[in-house]
Amino acid sequence: ELKVLATALVHCFRLFVRGCHYNTDAFALLWQQYNLAFDAWKNADRQRLIAELVGFWQQAEQLKHSILGSRPGTDAQLEVVQDIERRQQKLEQDLRRLGGEDAVRALHSQQSLSVSSDRKDHGEHSFCVREVGQTAPAAQEDAKDGFEEEVQGTVEKMVLAHELAVNDSFKLERHKLKEGSLEQHVTECVHRAFWDSLKQQLESNPPNYTQALSLLEEVKHALLQLIPPLQSVIQQEVNEVLDVDLICQQAAHGILDIGGYADFIVSILLRLCAPSRDGDVQSILSYKDDVVKLFKNMFRVLEQMKLDLANFQLQMLKPHLHATSVEYEREKFQQLLESKHSDLSATRSWLMKAVAEKCGGLQQQVDKKQIMSLALAKLLFWTDEEDYPETWHLDVHRLQNLQFELHCLAALCACVTVAASSPLGQPLKTDKVLLEQLKNDLWCVISGSRHRGLRDVAANVAEQLKAILLQWRRNHQLPLPCATDVSSLFQLVEMTLSAPQHPVLQLLLSRLRLMVEEAVYMNVKVSDVHTPPGLLLCSTEVLGVVTAFLHLVQRNRQVFGPTYSALLEDTTK
C-alpha cells in the first residue's frame, strides 16, 4: 500500500513539474494517506525491532541462569555472567531508544525465565526454566480458555436436550440475521463480493472456471451427504457423473456444460427431497441462463434439504432421546455445578422462602409436598429481585412468557369486572356476544404492554372499552349515558391497570395462584381444574397457560426431584 501511494505521489509531482493541470485537494488527500500509511509501517517496523531485542535479552537471561544453575562459584563463570549482563544493558539502552521506558518496564515484568530454587533434589538446588508463552500466567490463561469452552459445550448440550424434551415443535432453523445489524451488513457484503468474483471469472475471455469448479465440487459433497447410506446406486451415479477430474478436463478444453450438470443435480434432488420441496428444486432450472443465480439457488435448496433431513432425524430419535434425556440432563447439570463450584444458593433461598411462608415461623411438621407445590406455583408469579433458581435457568424465558400472559388475562378480567359494576357496563352481565368482542379487542391492547407495562396502556384500554360500550348502546338504539357515567367508567378502568396494588386485580391474581398451587399439589389433569370466579371470561386461555406450566413442572421434577428432596431435608432440619 505504501509503495502504491508513493508511486501515485511521484506521478502527481511529475504532472506539477510539467505544468499540467492537477487537483490540489486530491494531492493533499493522497499526501495525508501516505503519511498515515508511512507512520503505520514505521510503527510496525519499530515493534518488530523491539520484539527482536526482547528476544535477544531473554536468550541472554536464559543463558545466564543456566550458567548459574550449574555448580556456582568459579571466577570464569562470574566473568561470563558479567559480560552477559553488560550485553543486556546495551540491549536495554537500544530498547529504551526505540520504545522508551515503557518498553523496558514491560521487558522486566514479562521476563522469559522463571527460576525456582525452592525445590531440592538430593540436597542440590534445581532450577525450573519456562519459556515465554509457557509462563504460569499464560498457562493459566490457556487453561481458563479451555475450561470456559468445556463449560460452554456442556451448556449447549444441556440446552439442546432440554429443548427436545419440553418443546414438541422444536426444529432446527436457519439462523436469521437481525435486520439492519452490522452482522447482516457484513454478511451481505461478503456474499456480494463472492458472487461478483464468480461472475467476473465467468465473463472473462477465455472464461475462468476455477471458482465454478470449486462450487460444483461442494455441490457434489452436499449431495453425497443427503443420500441415505444404503442408497449405493445413487451414490455411485453421483460419483460417476460429477467426476471432478473429468469436469476439470472439460473446463480446460472449453467444453464445460454447467447447465447439463444442473439438470443432473436437479434430477437427483427430486429423488431425495420431500414432496413439499419439489417446487423449490424445479425452480433451480429456471436460472440455467445465469450461472451465478443458478449456483445461488442450488445452494439455497441444498441448505433447506439439509435442515429437512436433520429435523427428520431428530423426530426419529425423539423417542430414544425422551427415554434417556432425564438422566442425561441431570448428569450435565451436575457437571456444570462442579465446574462452577455452585452451591445452588438461589434454589436454596427459593425453597427456604416457601418453607417460611407455609410454616409461618412456627415449629410444626413440614409437608414437603405442600412446600414444593407452593414454591413451584410462586415461579408463575415471580416478583423477587433475586435470580431464578439454578434448576430453572433453562426455562426462565418460558416462565416469564407464561407469567406475562397470565397477568394480562387477570388484568383483562379485572377491567371487565370493574366495568360491569358501573351503570354504563350493565350489558356486560347478560350479552355474551358483547363480552366476546370486548375480550378480543381489549386483549390486543393489553397484550401489547410487554415492553411498556400495564400503566402505559391503561388509558388506551379504558378508551377502547368506553368506545365499545357506547357503540353497543347506539346499535341497540338506547339513549347515551351522561358524561358523568362515562367519565366514571373511564377512571375506574384506568385505575384498575395503573394502580400497582388494585384490590380487584390482586384478588384475581391470588385466586390464580391458589389454583396453580392446587393443580401442582394434586398433580391432576387440567380438565379437572376449576377456573376461579371472576376469570371465567378467559377460562380457555387461563387453562392453556396452566397446562403449559404443569408440563414444565413435570419435566423439572423428573430431572431435579432428588435435588429438591436433598435441599428440603437440609432446610427443614
Would you mind describing this structure in some detail?
The chain is mainly α and 573 residues long. Helices cover 72% and strands 1% of the residues. A two-stranded antiparallel sheet has the order 1-2. Helix 12 packs across helix 13 and helix 13 crosses helix 18. The longest helix has 50 residues.
How many extended strands? 2
User: Span between N and C termini?
Assistant: 75 Å
Radius of gyration using CA atoms only: 37 Å
Residue-averaged pLDDT: 79
Low-confidence stretches: 112-145
**What percent of residues adopt helix (DSSP H or I)?**
over 70%
Strand order of the largest sheet: 1-2
Number of helices: 19
Apparent shape: extended
Order of helices and strands: HHHEEHHHHHHHHHHHHHHHH
Beta percentage is under 5%
**Biggest beta sheet attributes:** 2 strands, antiparallel
Structural class: mainly alpha
Quaternary state of this entry equals single chain
Q: What's the structural blueprint in terms of helices and strands?
A:
Blueprint (H helix, E strand, L loop, with lengths): L1 H16 L6 H46 L5 H35 L10 E2 L2 E2 L10 H31 L15 H22 L6 H17 L5 H10 L2 H9 L5 H15 L5 H5 L8 H50 L4 H15 L8 H11 L17 H25 L11 H15 L7 H22 L7 H16 L4 H20 L16 H33 L2
Antiparallel strand pairs: 1-2
Helix pairs in contact: 1-2, 2-3, 4-11, 6-9, 6-11, 11-19, 12-13, 12-19, 13-18, 14-15, 14-17, 14-18, 14-19, 15-16, 16-17
Task: For the structure shown, list the relevant keywords.
2 strands; extended; two-stranded antiparallel sheet; mainly alpha; 573 residues; single chain
Concise summary:
With 573 residues, the chain is mostly helical.
